[in-house]
Predict the structure.
Amino acid sequence: MGKRQKMAAFLLILIVCLCAGCGEQQVKKSELILDTAVTLAAEGADAQAAIDESMARLKTIDSMVNPNVPDSDVNKLAQLAGTGKWVSLQPEVYKMLATAQDFAVKTNGAFDVTTKTLVDLWGIGTDHAKVPSPVELAAAQKLVGWQKLELNEEKQAARLQEKGMGVDLGGIAKGFAVDEVRKIYAKYGIENGLINLGGSSLYALGVNKEQTAWRIGIRHPRKEDAQEKMAVLPLKDAALSTSGDYERFFEAGGVRYHHIIDPRTGRPAQSGAISVTIVADSSVPDGGMLTDLLTTAVFVLGPEQGIHFLQTMPHGIKGAIVDGRYQLWTTGDMAKELEDVSKDFQFWQGSGELQ
Ligand code: ADP
Ligand code: MG
């Protein structure tokens, strides 16, 4: 190729590249919503509009589930608990509660949104966190039980049977919110982006700026520096959630008291799991909400029961559970997909057999 031809070829490539970017706008925005650092990234002509509408939507969802908002649906439910009165709910809250109840049954009560009285009693992550007395624990536990949360689908209403009960949507709302943002992105024709709710629930859409799958770092559960990774998972058109005992906890007498409560013992779950990551591909409806609640549920169930439970889930769902010996228990092709796995961890020997 002569010099001129080379130049012409170069210019052609340049023009093609520029045009590929025509109208493609990359926008990224962060805000504190749902008690978490939300970061939304989107690429496309309407990226800014999609992100603005998504942030507004997240604030609306926050106002429905936030116990600090006096007239939030969850507060109304607590206020009217034990009176026999039904509370009409916004469809979003109804959907979260109905899904929660479905999984309370499926997990034999490991996932239970009525765990609220226990969550409040332990106060993990607040300035009044403490180990409660056995008397306090017993009293709070009496006010926990998914069977005492009644739903009426036709009326889109709910009620709690006993005074003092409440619901806590902390284990499901962020995942639900991810799905809602995903819908807004779809409406605006966004094909590439990252919907990230504090790293604990996210959706990776299409590809990143380098035109490759988004690379999601999974946090090392025992390193203080949040940047230290256990592994990296390339993710494309899928939702991912992670739950761990390192998110919010305090230590007393050598025991780690964390924010995932086993409703059956009334205490922070000691199931053998220390971190759980679940992925749902785009074939799974409500994938964000499901991965969010499943990480909490599987954490409570522990590695062995958790793996078996995940095997009963739809095909597009897979997971990785880390136990206290730093063994990775995986389902689906998770073992193959995880990259840069820190040498602190090994795959549990049964991982392959269970695929
Ligand atoms: P995060 O992503 O916020 O760290 P998770 O998704 O792991 O949290 O969910 C933990 C939260 O779920 C707790 O902070 C609490 O609000 C709620 N929760 C705790 N235990 C349970 C349980 N057994 N079932 C349902 N919700 C729970
Ligand atoms: Mg969760």
Summary: The CA atoms of residues 114 and 144 lie 5 Å apart. The longest strand covers residues 273-281. Confidence is low (pLDDT under 50) at residues 14-22. The pocket of adenosine-5'-diphosphate (ligand 1) is lined by residues 111-113, 115, 119, 168, 170-171, 200, 243, 247, 259-261, 263, 292, 295-296, 300 (CB under 6 Å).
